[in-house]
Every structure is written in C-alpha cells, then in structure tokens.
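STRUCTURE REQUEST FORM
Protein name: RNA methyltransferase
Source organism: Massilia norwichensis
Requested output: structure tokens
Priority: standard
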Amino acid sequence: MRIESLRTRLRALGALPLHEDRILRDWVRNAGHDHGRRRPMDFLPKPVREALPQIDQELDGLARILSTHPAEDGSARLLVGLADGQTVESVLLPRDGVCVSSQVGCAVGCRFCMTGQGGLIRQVTSGEIVAQVVLARRQRPVKKVVFMGMGEPAHNLDNVMEAIELLGVEGNIAHKNLVFSTVGDPRVFERLPAGRVKPALALSLHTTRPALREKLLPRAPRLTPRELVEEGERYARLTGYPIQYQWTLLEGVNDGQDELDALIELLRGKYAVLNMIPYNANEGLPFQRPGWDKAHAIAAWLFERGILTKLRDSAGQDVDGGCGQLRARALDGAQP
Ligand code: SF4
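Status: completed
Returned output:
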C-alpha cells in the first residue's frame, strides 16, 4: 500500500485533507488506539468511519516482526515479514533511532554487502517503509529514522520521498533526523532539494579512488568521489545539515595512507562528518575487518588534521547481524 493510494481512497469516501492527515498521523504516531480500542473519530464523515476498521487491519498487515535479535550495545535487529511473504530487516538503534529498509534486495551489488549479492527483488512501498517505523515505535520511542537498511533509497525514490514526507510532517520526527543514505544517484540531488521535507543526507564514499569505487560499488552511478562531494556540499549548504560521508573500512583495501591523504584533500573545509565503520565480516565475502586499534588510529589521525571523523561500529554486530544476514539465513532455512 502506498500512502498516496490510501489518501486517494479516503478522499473518495469523502475525507477532507485534514481527515486524511489525522488518520495517517494516528497511525505513524501509534496514537489511534487506547488499550487496544480505537479512539472515537466522530468528526469523520460516516463512510470514512465505517471504512476505518478495514483500513486499520490493512495497515496492521503491512509488516510484522518475525524475529528480534537484541545486541549488547542496546540495538536490536528485527526480521520483518511483509504481506506477500518477503522479508526485510530493520534495526532499533540506541538513542531512539530506527534503521529501515527501502527495497527487498538491492541492485547496486556492493561487493562487501550481503544484500547486494542477490540483486533486487522488489521495491518496498511507502506504506511498508512507514510500517517499519510503526513497528519500532511499538517497541520503544523513535526520534530518528535512517534509510540505511536493505536497498538503495535512490532506486525507490517515489516511495521513499512519500514516507519521508509523512514521517517529517505527521510523524513528529525532526527533518534533520530523517537520514537518506545513498551511493549517490544524480536524481537524489534534483529531488531532495525540491521536497517539502528535506532529509539529512548520508553518502557512501568508501574510497577516494574512482576505479576502486567502480569495483566496490559496481552498479552505482558513475559519479567520481570528487563529483559526489561537490553535489553533497551543495545540498549541505542548502539544508544547513552536514553531509554524513560513510566509509566502510576494509582491511588492506581502503585503509592505506594514500587514501587518508586523499581524504584530507577531498573533505577539508567541507560541511561534513566522516563516519568510519569497520567492516562487519560476512561469511563468503572476501573482505576483512581491520583491528579496532588500527581503525581508532586512522580516525584520530584524520580528526587531528581537521576532518570531523566519527568511528562507529555497525549496530548489532555481536548478533551476527550485518545488513542482509538475517534475511539470508532465513532464506537458507536456518534459524534467523
Ligand atoms: Fe545496496 Fe547498500 Fe548493500 Fe550497496 S551496501 S548493495 S547500496 S544495500
């Protein structure tokens, strides 16, 4: 279900825009029910009121939690089942965040990512994206939503933009706390600035070398790292939020001095934060995680030279839950 199609359906029943907003707001804030009973909505036109139980049921059926995998850092990975039997992963993050999936599978095919290995299966609809947030809100408060789960949000722009608008307008989430994460598709730099809700932007950089980036991200658009940073800088200046550059640290691949020197040259003076994330090893993929001491030394070296660098661990690592692993294990028939 797309949010726009639900609005069209409500309108056909006689709902005014403020009625649509109220129904959607109650859903996304988990506020329509009191101890399991729907709050009275006497102000709605009768046909809309009569359709509400059916609509509630459909919204509830969009996504359900199949398994939960809590980790010591306070995060928890969720394997989420969709109505057609497909599955995606969401992650409850420490400090009131949730990471959601925007596609079942992914067409970008990043060499180090489990999700990328199986290609794209289907788009996740705007309703299913918001339903992941609603599920998370049933577990704990959510004040931040990052689009960093399975999928490339830029390849599902209409659905992702609809979800972002609803979360930012009715969902009580600050616009800078909606984080659109992409490998860098030119369409993103056209659509996001024009949106009613402008999310923060995370750009997957991973290397300063164009040829290596093409190898690591084989089906990402052919923007060089420099072009990507130029586009990012324009968006950062427009919105007033820094770009979050993502750098998955791969042992012996992008952790050498040449990369660090080039990073200084690329990012110095930019309105940016560099998130360094030591790789979360995936069985069957030929990459290694560098030691924590080495990763720490790299981040400190960059920081001392003026690059605002944050060393992060990917949430849920101690439950063997790199993006796509839960789903891959469930498809193998193993206990996810
Ligand atoms: Fe797709 Fe992201 Fe995995 Fe790359 S890292 S294949 S963009 S899900």
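Reviewer notes: The two ends are 26 Å apart (CA to CA). The pocket of iron/sulfur cluster is lined by residues 106, 108-110, 113, 115-116, 150-152, 183 (CB under 6 Å).
Form closed.
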